[in-house]
Write a structure and sequence with these properties.
Blueprint lengths: L11 E11 L2 E11 L3 H10 L16 E4 L5 E7 L8 H4 L2 E13 L2 E12 L9 E9 L8 E8 L2 H5 L12 H25 L29
Antiparallel strand pairs: 1-2, 2-8, 3-4, 4-5, 5-6, 6-7, 7-8
Length: 228
C-alpha cells in the first residue's frame, strides 16, 4: 500500500453526525470524509499509527502498553486513558481497548474494511465499559478521478448490529460525558490522520510495532488478498 503525496491537500469534512441516548441506551454515528486520498491510504494511517500518545492516532491519550499481533490484524491497548494524565481524566477513567480488522475487500474504487473496536474494564473492580462498536473505511466517490475516502463510526446502531457487533455499555452517569469526549477525541484523530497524509513522516508520526518497518506503506494482514 503506497501513500503518495501530491500538491492537493487532504482535508476532512464531517458528512454525518448523530448522537443520542434513547431508552437509556447510547447511540452514535459519525462519518468523516477525506479529500484527495484513497481508502487504502486512509486505512494504512488509521491502523498503522500508534494508537495512543504523542505522534499517534489519539495524540492526547496515554496507556500502559500497546500489544500488536504478528499478522497485523489486531492490537490490544492496556489501561487506555482517552484524556491522558490530565485532571479531567479522573472523571473519564480508563479501560482496555482491542482493535481488530475483520473484513476487507477490494472494489472498483478502492478497499473497504470493517474494524471491531472493543472496550473492557481495566480495573477488576469495574464492570463497565464493556462491548464493541464499528469502524468502517471505504471509498466515498464513484468518480475515480476524485480520490476521496471515508471513516465511519457506528455505536449501538442498525449498522453495527448488522455486522454482529455487540452493543457498547457505558456506566450510568457517564454516557453524556462519553458522547462529548469520544466525538472530540475522534475529531482530533481525523485531523491527525489528515496531517500525516499531508506531510508524511515529516509530521512526527509514530507507528505501531506491526507497522514500524513499512510505516506509510503498511498493509493490514487481513487485506493481503486485496493487493493490486
Amino acid at each position: 500500500m503506497i501513500v503518495s503525496m501530491s500538491e492537493s491537500k487532504v482535508e476532512v469534512t464531517v458528512t454525518e453526525s448523530f448522537g443520542a441516548i434513547q431508552s437509556g441506551q447510547l447511540s452514535m454515528r459519525h462519518r468523516r470524509c477525506f479529500s484527495n486520498t484513497s481508502s487504502e491510504q486512509l486505512l494504512s494511517v488509521l491502523l498503522g499509527l500508534k494508537f495512543y500518545g504523542k505522534g499517534g492516532l489519539m495524540a492526547d491519550s496515554s496507556a500502559n502498553s500497546e500489544e500488536c499481533s504478528s499478522d497485523g490484524n489486531s492490537r490490544f491497548i492496556k489501561n487506555f486513558k482517552p484524556l491522558g494524565n490530565s485532571f479531567a481524566s479522573i472523571f473519564v477513567g480508563s479501560f482496555n481497548v482491542r482493535q481488530e480488522i475483520f473484513e476487507c475487500a477490494m472494489g472498483p474504487n478502492g478497499v473497504a474494511a470493517a474494524i471491531r473496536m472493543s472496550f473492557s474494564p481495566w480495573s477488576p473492580k469495574e464492570e463497565l465499559p464493556r462491548g464493541s462498536f464499528l469502524w468502517e473505511v471505504e471509498p466515498d466517490s464513484a468518480d475515480t478521478r476524485e480520490a476521496r475516502a471515508c471513516w465511519t463510526e457506528s455505536i449501538n446502531t442498525r449498522e453495527s448490529r448488522s455486522k454482529q457487533i455487540p452493543d457498547l455499555r457505558i456506566a450510568k452517569g457517564k454516557k453524556r460525558v462519553f458522547m462529548l469526549g469520544h466525538n472530540r477525541l475522534n475529531e482530533k484523530a481525523a485531523r491527525r490522520m489528515a496531517d500525516v497524509l499531508n506531510h508524511g513522516d515529516d509530521g512526527g508520526a509514530v507507528f505501531a510495532a506491526y507497522a514500524r518497518a513499512d510505516r506509510l506503506r503498511f498493509w493490514v494482514g487481513r487485506c493481503a488478498a486485496c493487493k493490486r
